[in-house]
Amino acid sequence: MTTSVLSLPHGADAPARPFRLLSLKTPAPAADASPTRRVSSQALLKGDRELVIQHQGNEYHLRLTRNDKLILTK
Questions:
Q1: pTM over 0.70
Q2: Which residues contact 23 (CB under 8 A, 6 or more apart)?
């Protein structure tokens, strides 16, 4: 986030305390940050409509609905 300092008039028109404007630009990612891995749903499901994911001893079901939406349930 970048900041800019504005100079304002002194005296009666001056605000009670100084303030800064903040830029809405998103900062550049850190050099050491690795990009998030992306996998297509077609690659995961491989033509099936359901996939079971095992995580910490639990099973999660990733299902493809009739409306082509994905639902993940435990």
A1: no
A2: 1, 2, 3, 4
